[in-house]
Amino acid sequence: MSTYRLHTLFHPSSVALVGASPRPHSVGRTILRNLRSAGFGGRIDLVNPRYPSIDGLATVPRLEDLPAAPDLVVIATPPHAVRDIVAASAAKGAAACIIVTAGLGRGPGSIAAAVEAAARPHGLRLVGPNCLGVISTAAKLNASFAAGMPLPGDLALLSQSGAVASGLIEWASRRAVGFSAVVSLGDSLDVDFGDLLDFFAMDRGTRAVLLYIESIKDARKFMSAARAAARAKPIVAIKAGRHAQGAKAALTHTGALAGSDAVYDAALRRAGLLRVFDLDDLFAATETLARIGPFRGRRLALLTNGGGIGVLAVDRLIDLGGTVAAISDETMRRLDAVLPPTWSRANPVDIIGDADANRYVAALDALLGDPENDAVMVFNVPTGLGSPKEAARAVIDTVERHRQPGLRQKPVFAVWVGAAPETEQAFESARLPHFQNEGDAVRGFMQLVRYGEAQENLMETPPSLPQDFVPDVAAARRIVAEALKAGETWLGPLAVNGVLQAYEIPVAPVYLARTPEEAGERAQSILDGGAPVAVKVLSPDIVHKSEVGGVRLNVTSAAAARDAAADILARARARRPDARITGVTVQPMIVKPKARELIAGLADDPTFGPVLVFGRGGTAVEVINDKALELPPLDLHLARQLIARTRVARILKPYRDVPAADVDAVALVLVKLAQLAADIPEIRELDMNPILADKDGVICVDARMMVAPVPPTPGRAGHPRFAIRPYPSEWERHLTMRDGRPVFVRPVRPEDEPLFRAFLAHISAEDLRLRFFAPVKELSHAFIARLTQLDYARAMAFVAVDQASGEMLGVVRLHADANYEQGEYAVLVRSDLKGRGLGWQLMELMISYAQAMGLKTVEGQVLRENTGMLRMCRELGFTIRPDPHDSEMRLVTLALDRPRAGGASA
User: Fold this and answer.
1) 31 and 48 Cβ atoms separated by less than 8 Å
2) Is the pLDDT assigned to residue 380 strictly greater than 80?
3) Contact, 626 vs 598, CB < 8 A?
4) Concatenated DSSP letters for 684-733?
5) pLDDT category, 902, cuts 50, 70, 90?
6) What is the DSSP letter of 655?
7) 349-350 and 299-304: which strand pairing?
8) pLDDT band at 665, cuts 50/70/90?
9) CB 74 within 8 A of CB 42
10) Alpha helices (runs of H) in 618-697, residue ranges in sequence order
11) Cα 81 from Cα 88, distance rounded (Å)
C-alpha cells in the first residue's frame, strides 16, 4: 500500500493506547509516559479493562467503547489479544496500528497472519509487530518505549532493530543530532522500508534518511523505493551481519564468491545509497553530504604544512581505492612562484611547517584551479611558527571566494589537528567539512566518492536488450526446458555450450565420449587439427571435476586420451560410487600464453535474485577472492565499472611484453550474461571459469549451469526475479495522431528533464492546475525529477515525442501499489494539441501496460470541473463517483478483470 495513510501515522490527531498500565517499568506505562512528556497535542485514549483510570486519565475496557475513532492505535498487550484489537481498530476507522507486542509468529496459521488478514481489507496500516514504536518530532509524538524523546531535526531514522534505534536516539542526543522521525519496523508485517522510503522521500521536513538494515523481504519493492528516494535526498545505510557465512553451501565458484553481504553491498550501491559501517560514519557521512553533495571523480590533492600527516593520508587514500591527483604543469609553475624552494614539488603539496595564512591562500588558489584533481584536502598541524586559527580563516575565505552561484564548487575538506572550538565553529558556519585526523577525513572523502558513483549509476537505464545483439532465445529456452522436463538440475557440457552459443558467448567446443575408445577417436580428430586435448569426467552429480581426479590436460595422442579416459572413469567411480557417470568429454586445449584467467557467471541470491559475478579465475578463485558483484540489468558502462572494481582489472592493462586484453570483449560477455538471466530466469547458477582474455578477445574454457523452475510472480512479467527492472524497450510504440502527425511513444528516461521543461512551457496555467490540483509556481529540478526518474517496476511513464521535431507532446503515468493490485494514473497533453486523439491513445497504452502488470484496477482523481477528462474516462469504461473526502474531486476507477466499453476517441 506504499504511503497510504502514512501521513496520519506520523501526524495523528488522536492516539489510543491499548495495554496502558500503571505498573512501573512496564511497556504500557513507558509508552504512556512518552506520549504525555513529548507534548502530543491531540487526544490520548487509554484502553485497559482492569483499571478505571491510569495517571489521572480515564480508561475504557474495550477499543469499541471509545466515543470516537482514534487515528493511531498503539498495541502493547499479550499476543493472543492482538488480532481482535486490530480487527476492532479497523472496524472503528483507525488509520494505523503500532504493534509493540512480540511473539506473533510467522507464516500461515500464525497470529501474525490473522492480524494481517484483519487489517488488509480495511486499509489499516500496521507497524511491527515486535517493534520499539514510532516517533515524530514535528507532531510531538513519541509512541514508543524508548528511553526518551530525541531532539527535533531533519534526519529520519528507519531501523529494523528496536535496540539499535533506542541506542541511536541516545547516541545522537549527546551529539546534538536531531530527528524528524524514528521508526522501529520490527517484523514489518505491513509497513516496511519501501513504504517509508516512499514517504520520507517526499517529506519536506526530512533532509536525509538513515537506515539500519538486517534483511530485506521484498527486493524489488525496496530497490524501487530506494532508487526513487536516493534521487531526492541522501540515504545512508548500515547493513548488519556483514560476516555471515552465506556462501558455505554454494555449489559453484561463482556461488561461493557471491556471499550474502557482497550481494547487499552491490544492491545498496546500485540503489544509490551510501553504505557505512559504524555509527560514527552514519552521522558523519550524512552531515558531509549535506555540506557538499555528490561529485564526480576520486583524484584528491592534499595541501599540508606537515609532510608526515600528508604521507599517512596518502596511504589511507590508496587503501580505500582513491587516487593521488597529479599536478598539472601550469599549477606546478604557479606553486613554484608562490612557495619557498623547499616545498615538496609533488602531491601531497607540503608548504613547510612555517606556512602562514597567505601561503595557504596561494597554494589553495592554485590547486582549486587545477583540472588534474577533483577535490582538495587541506591539513594543518599546529606549530609555533604559524597560527592555525588564521590559516583556517584564510582557507574559509578562499573557498568562499571560489564559490559561484549556480555552479558546482570543487569540494574542499579541512583537517585541523587539535583544532580549538572557535576554529571548528568557523568551519561549521562556513559549511566546510572538517575533521580532527587524516583517517576520518580520507574516509569521508571516499564515502562521497562512492556516493557520487552510486548517484551516477542511478541514471543508468540499461535496455531490456542491448542494441546490435540478437540472441537465439528460443534455442536456449528449448535446451533449458528439456533439461527441466527430464528432472535435471545441472546441464551437461553439451547443453551448456548450446545455451552460451545461443547468446554468442565464445566457448571452447566440447565432444561427448561414453567409452575410453570413443575418447581416443574424438581426441584424434582434434589432434589432427594441431591442438592437444583435455579429457574430463561427465556426470550430473560431480560439479567440481578436479576433486575426483576427473581432469587430464595437454593430452597429445589418441592412445593417451583413451588411457586418460579409462583412468578418469575408474577414479570417479571409486571416489563417487553414488554418482551417475555418463562418460567423458573431450575438447581442444585452448593455448593462450599471454591470456588472463577470469571468472564470470550468475549466482542466485534468495533476496535479490540473479547476481552477476566477475573476477580473477582459475582453480583458486575462493582463496584469491578477487571479485565484484552487480545486479542485472547491465549495459557496457556498468559492465566496465564492474570490471574496474576488481584487482584483476590492473593486469588486463598492458605490462612488460604482454599487450592489453580486450576489455570491451570482457564487458560484452557480462552484458550478454545479464541478458541471459533476464530471458531465462530458470538459470539459477552459471559458472564460467576460466575465461581466457587477451588482445584477441575472450573464450570460455569451462562452464557449469544449474537450472530450476520459476513460479509465476504477479506484476513481474518478463523479468520476474530481477530486483531492478530493465528499461522496457519492448513498450516503445509508433502512433499517428488524428491530424496525421507521426508520434514516437516510449518509456520515460532520466535524461528527459530538458524535454519536460520545454513540454511544461506549452501547458497553460489552467491545465497545470487541473492536472496537479493546485497552481504550479515553480518547475524545479526536484519537481521534474519526480516525473522523469522512474524505476519501471511500480512506476511507469510513457512520453509522446514528435518524430520530426523531437518535441514532447504528452505523457501518461501509472504508479502501482506495493502489492501490484491497483494503480493510479495521470495524463497530460500539450494545451495546443487537445482534441487530436493523443490523450486517448496514451490512456489506451497505459491501460494495456496495467493489464500486462497484472493489476486489477486503475484509478485516478479528477477535478469535477475537468469535464474533458471525465468524458474520456467514461468512454474508456471508467466508473465515476464523488470523492467522499473532497466535494471538488471525482474518483475514476477502471476494473481490468472485465471487458471495457468502447468509445470514440477524445
Assistant:
1) no
2) yes
3) no
4) EEEEEEEEEEETTEEEE--EEEEE------TT-TT-TT-SSPPB-GGG-E
5) very low
6) B
7) parallel
8) very high
9) no
10) 621-624, 636-644, 648-651, 663-679
11) 11
Mean pLDDT of 762-770: 76
What average pLDDT does the structure give for the chain? 88
Q: Give yes or no for a contact between 119 and 131, defined as CB atoms under 8 angstroms apart.
A: no
Contact by Cβ (8 Å): 186, 75: no
Asked if 413 and 446 count as a contact pair (C-beta separation under 8 A), the reply is no
Alpha helices by DSSP H, 301-387: 307-319, 329-338, 357-368
> What per-residue confidence (pLDDT) applies to 84?
96
Cα gap 322→22, rounded to integer Å: 58
Report the distance separating Cα 395 and Cα 364, nearest Å. 8
Nearest to 459 by CA among 294, 260, 698, 216: 294
Predicted TM-score (pTM) of the model is 0.82
Closest by CA position to 523, among listed 494, 546, 554: 554
User: pLDDT-derived band of residue 906, with 50, 70 and 90 as boundaries?
Assistant: very low
* Residue among 294, 273, 191, 285 at smallest CA distance from 226: 273
**Helix, strand, coil percent content, the chain, rounded in steps of 5:** 40, 25, 40
Distance CA(587)–CA(590), nearest Å, equals 9
Number of helices (H) and strands (E) in the chain: give both, helices first. Answer: 29, 38
Position 109, amino acid: G
Instruction: Kindly tell me if the per-residue pLDDT of 343 is higher than 80.
Output: yes
Residue among 790, 788, 872 at smallest CA distance from 198:
790
Question: Residue 15: which of 62, 75, 104, 58 has the closest Cα?
Answer: 75
How many other β-carbons are positioned within 10 Å of the β-carbon of residue 775? 9
SS3 at position 298: coil
Model confidence at 904, pLDDT cuts 50, 70, 90, reads very low
* Pair 129, 118: CB distance under 8 Å: no
Contact 505, 498 (CB under 8 A): no
- Element housing 828 (H / E): strand 822-829
Burial of residue 898 (number of CB atoms within 10 Å: 0-12, 13-18, 19+)? exposed
Q: Are 497 and 703 in contact (CB under 8 A)?
A: yes
Angle, nearest 10°, between helix axes 388-402 and 421-429?
0
Selected residue with higher pLDDT from 77 and 768: 77
| Burial label, 91 (beta-carbon count in 10 A; 0-12, 13-18, 19+) | middle
Cα dihedral 48, 49, 50, 54, rounded to 10, equals 40
Look at residue 546 and give its three-state secondary structure: helix
CA distance 659 to 654: 5
Nearest to 220 by CA among 721, 629, 749, 709: 721
> Which are the contacts of 328, defined by CB distance < 8 A and separation ≥ 6?
370, 371, 372
The Cβ-side half-sphere exposure at 239, using a 13 Å CA radius, reads 19
SS3 34: helix
Q: Which three cell numbers stand for residue 129?
A: 509487530
* Nearest-10 Cα torsion for 738, 728, 474, 493: 170
> Residues near 409 by Cβ (< 8 Å), separated by ≥ 6?
399, 402, 403
Distance CA 377, CA 303 (A): 6
3-class secondary structure, 486:
coil
* Rounded Cα–Cα distance for residues 715 and 62 (Å): 40
Q: What is the pLDDT of residues 32-67, one digit of tens each?
A: 999 999 999 999 999 999 999 999 999 999 999 999
Q: How would you classify the pairing of strands 627-630 and 43-47?
A: unpaired
| Residue 842 near residue 798, CB atoms below 8 Å | yes
**Distance, CA of 137 to CA of 134 (rounded, Å):** 10
SS3 label, residue 891: strand
Of 621 and 574, the one with more pLDDT = 574
Q: Which of 337, 381, 339, 383 is nearest to 358 (CA)?
A: 339
Q: Which helix (H) or strand (E) holds 879?
A: strand 879-883
DSSP per-residue letters across 465-483: S-TT----HHHHHHHHHHH
